[in-house]
């Protein structure tokens, strides 16, 4: 039985909300699933992601294949990096304490980076909210109504020649 980690859509029309689930690859998108791992709400800024890291790691080690979107979510949350570190432990490259130390260091840096991005986003939103409204200026080309008629052009040319004499 092929097992996939995928998103199960909920929410109303144009208001998506997803559960991250483990399901048989043959079952329909919103159908029967084996286990629920978390949720993903793309409507909030930034998107809200809640994942049970231990359950996701267990299923990855059992061979569950994540879809592209779920793979990105797991990567963002550090599950794939933790799997990578635990593989290094199983190969004897370093011990489990060193792996957990690397993971906690990465997680702290990641959280700081996310907080920095959120702060920048809030700053931009506040600047946009408080900025004065600037109206678009129309092009400087004369309107059809303002353009002189051929008879007016001829009269002006005649006046110029009279003044020159």
Task: Provide keyphrases for this structure.
S16 Ribosomal Protein, Chain: A; five-stranded mixed beta sheet; 50% helix; 165 residues; 5 helices; elongated; alpha+beta
What strand line-up does the widest sheet have?
4-3-2-1-5
Q: Which stretches are poorly predicted, pLDDT < 50 over at least 5 residues?
A: none
CATH topology (level 3) name: S16 Ribosomal Protein, Chain: A
Strand content: 15-25%
Number of domains: 1
Integer-rounded radius of gyration? 31 Å
Largest sheet, in brief, is: 5 strands, mixed
CATH superfamily, called what? Ribosomal protein S16
- SSE sequence, one letter per element: EEEEHEHHHH
Count of individual helical segments: 5
**Mean model confidence by pLDDT:** 87
How does CATH name the architecture?
2-Layer Sandwich
CATH class reads: Alpha Beta
Helix content: 40-55%
What is the β-strand count?
Answer: 5
- Broad structural category: alpha+beta
* Morphology: elongated
First-last Cα distance: 102 Å
Care to describe what's here?
With 165 residues, the chain is of the alpha+beta class. It has a single domain (3-130), classed as S16 Ribosomal Protein, Chain: A (2-Layer Sandwich). 50% of the residues lie in helices and 18% in strands. It is built from 5 helices and 5 strands; from the N terminus they run ββββαβαααα. Strands 4-3-2-1-5 form a 5-stranded mixed beta sheet. The mean pLDDT is 87.
């Amino acid at each position: 039985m092929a097992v996939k980690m995928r998103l199960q859509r909920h929410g109303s029309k144009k208001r998506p909300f997803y559960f991250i689930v483990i399901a048989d690859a043959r079952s329909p998108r919103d159908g029967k699933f084996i286990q629920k791992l978390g949720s993903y709400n793309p409507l909030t800024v930034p998107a809200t992601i809640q994942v049970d890291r231990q359950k996701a790691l267990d299923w990855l080690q059992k061979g569950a294949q994540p879809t592209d979107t779920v793979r990105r979510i797991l990567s963002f949350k550090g599950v794939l990096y933790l799997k990578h570190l635990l593989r290094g432990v199983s190969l004897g490259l370093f011990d489990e304490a060193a792996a957990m130390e690397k993971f906690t260091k990465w997680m702290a840096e990641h959280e700081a980076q996310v907080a920095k991005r959120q702060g920048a986003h809030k700053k931009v939103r506040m600047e946009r909210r408080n900025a004065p409204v600037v109206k678009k200026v129309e092009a400087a080309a004369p309107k059809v109504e303002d353009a002189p008629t051929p008879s007016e052009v001829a009269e002006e040319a005649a006046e110029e020649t009279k003044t020159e004499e």
